[in-house]
Write a structure and sequence with these properties.
Elements (H helix, E strand, L loop, with lengths): L2 H8 L3 H9 L6 H13 L18 E6 L5 H16 L3 E6 L4 H13 L4 E5 L12 H9 L2 E4 L8 E6 L1 H14 L5 E5 L4 H17 L8 E3 L7 H13 L6 E4 L2 H13 L9 E5 L13 E4 L2 H16 L7 E4 L2 E3 L5
Parallel strand pairs: 1-2, 1-3, 3-4, 4-5, 5-11, 6-7, 6-8, 8-9, 9-10
Antiparallel strand pairs: 10-12
Length: about 325
């Protein structure tokens, strides 16, 4: 019998059970009695590892990350691990890859390890086909699930994210205001975040134009690390006659490929071509010219995610969704 079992049998949230165990007065007498009746019936007692929080806990949080070689995801895992350690929590990390079945198996493994909470790092864990998100719902019945940079409406799932839609829309509008007439959007994913960015780009175009030209939405099928592949795709696109004077990219790696394209095509940046990346990663200052990029405040997101996680485990109230605003950092490519 765990705190999660009690919440199910009493028909209340895990946070409510935790508040009852902690003696928190912010619980109605009716609800308190319902929880205490279940505890008495099943003779529940927190184990010796509980650290005074009233939890059947080993003070360990599971972290799932699709690809630890990805700059954005690796940085996020670092910030999250550091934050958890500061609160006295250990962490277990599983690099799942992007395959749905592997993600399901990894999440199931975390549940079997009896971690207190699971953090899913990145929007790739959320599928467009909602039936494929059932594994997250099932996990949330047993423990809190935290999502970084994705929005999922489900009981006991907590989301911290950047408003990728508005951030990309604002970056595109900024280019329009600076006299760019033919703006290309370059992306290489169909994750939740990628779709929100694409929608933001489309909204900006529709604010100025009557219709969308899908030729200006370019999908790169290769790895985000294939910088030369991005260059070659744009050179091929140019040969086909598509003219563009600016490129908005879904991440900084793609934008690095655009800079290599400009050099190969003998275009001057930003005179002939403006480029905006996304994530404001270390790549922005390692290329020449330095890259303008949308800062999604990743460190702030991760710190808030950890704070929310700890609040939940302590039985404290915390918002189910917290949204950060992105910020365009101007450098030499604009």
């Amino acid at each position: 019998m765990t705190i999660y079992d009690i919440s199910q049998k009493a028909g209340v949230s895990i946070a409510t059970v935790s508040r009852v165990l902690n003696g928190n007065t912010n619980v109605s007498e009716k609800t308190r009695k319902k929880v205490l009746d279940v505890i008495e019936k099943y003779d529940y007692a927190p184990n010796v590892f509980a650290r005074g929080l009233g939890l059947d806990s080993m003070n360990c949080v599971g972290i799932l990350c699709a690809d630890s070689s990805d700059i954005y995801l690796a940085k996020a895992v670092y910030y999250i691990e550091q934050g958890l350690r500061a609160y006295g929590y250990n962490s277990l990390l599983s690099c799942t890859g992007y395959d749905l079945e592997n993600r399901k198996k990894s999440l199931s493994m975390m549940l079997n390890q009896r971690v207190d909470c699971v953090i899913l790092v990145g929007s790739s864990y959320l599928e467009q086909d909602d039936s494929n998100n059932a594994y997250i719902r099932e996990a949330s019945v047993k423990m809190p699930v935290m999502l970084l940079n994705a929005d999922f409406d489900c009981e006991n799932v907590y989301c911290v994210l950047c408003d990728d839609f508005k951030s990309t829309m604002d970056a595109t509008l900024w280019l329009m205001e600076h006299k760019r007439k033919k703006i290309l959007y370059l992306y290489n994913s169909t994750s939740y975040s990628a779709i929100r960015k694409l929608s933001g780009f489309r909204s900006a175009i529709l604010m100025k134009e009557q219709t969308l030209d899908k030729n200006y939405e370019l999908y790169f099928p290769g790895s985000r690390d294939d910088i030369d592949g991005v260059r070659d795709l744009l050179l091929e696109t140019r040969k086909k006659g598509l003219e563009f004077d600016a490129v908005v990219c879904a991440d900084d790696s793609l934008a690095s490929g655009v800079i290599k394209y400009a050099k190969a095509a003998k275009l001057s940046i930003p005179k002939d071509l403006s480029v905006i990346g996304y994530n404001n990663s270390i790549l922005t200052i390692t290329c020449e010219p330095e890259l303008s990029s949308v800062d999604n405040h990743l460190q702030d997101q991760c710190e808030q995610l950890v704070k929310s996680c700890v609040q939940i485990l302590r039985g404290e109230e915390t918002p189910r969704k917290i949204i950060f605003s992105g910020e365009l950092i101007e450098r030499s490519t604009t």
